[in-house]
């Protein structure tokens, strides 16, 4: 089963050029074939192809169904982009497959990567969501300065964690997750968060956590945090 993406499906029953090429050229679907489509907001549509054009494949909707979210809480991973962009891309792909709801790239004091092409990351997110048959497309934000992001979390009522490598007392993330509550985890750059960044997070209620006994790469930490939050809500 393949899942196609059409965000404006209620307005126009035509797949995008990229989706049309995949549907018609790659999968060789033709007129009369039924396909599964999502709007990325939790609704899946069973549709029938009416015009199998490789650039603008038209279809008619047969039925629609609102899907239940995979988990009853909101999972937000805020992570500093890695110097090697392929590592961040890998982490985002895996987090989407696992079930992340929101991703914010962070520009931190020790960040080596200062710019980010979110358009490419959005394509990776879409591909991973389709691969895992996820009808809810995760939200990706633009690269956000750390201080600005922290200020926006002052009134947040969910669980807030910061994973860092300093030797102060930290709790184990898996022991702190409360079922059903929204979760936000901050993951720093290769050089870790600065001491001031950690202090700023703690001052507004973030809990310092460890992700295990080993020191993890940034991208690995992001995936581990995501999986831990999902697993502890099973």
Quantity of strands, as a count: 12
* Straight-line distance between termini: 25 Å
Portion in beta strands: 15-25%
Structural class: alpha/beta
Low-pLDDT sequence parts: none
CATH domain class of the largest domain? Alpha Beta
Continuous helix count:
7
- Rg, alpha carbons: 20 Å
Give a description of the structure:
This protein has 234 residues and is of the alpha/beta class. It folds into 2 domains: 64 residues, Ribosomal Protein L25, Chain P (Beta Barrel); 157 residues, Alpha/beta knot (3-Layer(aba) Sandwich). Helix content is 30%, strand content 24%. It has 7 helices and 12 strands. Strands 5, 6, 7, 8, 9, 10, 11 and 12 form an 8-stranded parallel β-sheet that branches. β1, α1 and β2 form a beta-alpha-beta unit. α2 packs parallel to α3 and α2 packs parallel to α7.
Q: What descriptive keywords fit this protein?
A:
234 residues, alpha/beta, Ribosomal Protein L25, Chain P, Alpha/beta knot, 2 domains, 24% strand, elongated
Brief characterization of the structure:
The protein is an alpha/beta fold. It is 30% helix and 24% strand. It is built from seven helices and twelve strands.
Architecture blueprint of SSEs:
Elements: E1 3-5, H1 17-26, E2 34-38, E3 43-51, E4 58-66, E5 75-79, H2 85-98, E6 102-107, H3 118-131, E7 139-140, E8 144-145, H4 146-151, E9 159-163, E10 171-172, H5 173-176, E11 183-187, H6 195-203, E12 207-210, H7 218-231
Parallel strand pairs: 1-2, 5-6, 5-11, 6-7, 6-8, 9-11, 9-12, 10-12
Antiparallel strand pairs: 2-3, 3-4
Helix pairs in contact: 2-3, 2-7
């Amino acid at each position: 089963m393949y899942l196609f993406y059409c965000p404006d499906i209620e307005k126009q029953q035509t797949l995008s050029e990229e989706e049309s090429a995949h549907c018609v050229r790659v999968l060789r679907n033709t007129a009369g074939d039924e396909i599964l489509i999502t709007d990325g907001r939790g609704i899946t549509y069973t549709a029938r192809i009416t015009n199998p054009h490789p650039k603008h494949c038209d279809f008619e909707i047969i039925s629609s169904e609102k899907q239940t979210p995979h988990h009853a809480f909101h999972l937000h991973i805020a992570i500093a982009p890695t110097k090697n962009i392929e590592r961040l891309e890998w982490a985002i792909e895996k987090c989407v497959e696992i079930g992340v709801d929101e991703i914010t790239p962070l520009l931190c004091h020790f960040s080596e990567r200062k710019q980010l092409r979110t358009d490419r990351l959005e394509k990776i997110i879409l591909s991973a969501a389709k691969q895992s048959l996820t009808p809810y497309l995760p939200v990706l934000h633009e690269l956000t300065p750390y201080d600005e992001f922290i200020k926006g979390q002052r009134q947040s009522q969910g669980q807030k964690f910061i994973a860092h490598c300093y030797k102060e007392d930290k709790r184990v993330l898996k022991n702190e997750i409360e079922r059903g509550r929204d979760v936000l985890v901050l993951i720093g750059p290769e050089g870790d968060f600065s001491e001031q960044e950690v202090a700023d997070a703690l001052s507004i209620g973030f809990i310092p956590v460890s992700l295990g006994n080993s020191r993890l790469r940034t991208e690995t930490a992001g995936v581990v945090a995501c999986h831990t939050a999902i697993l502890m809500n099973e």
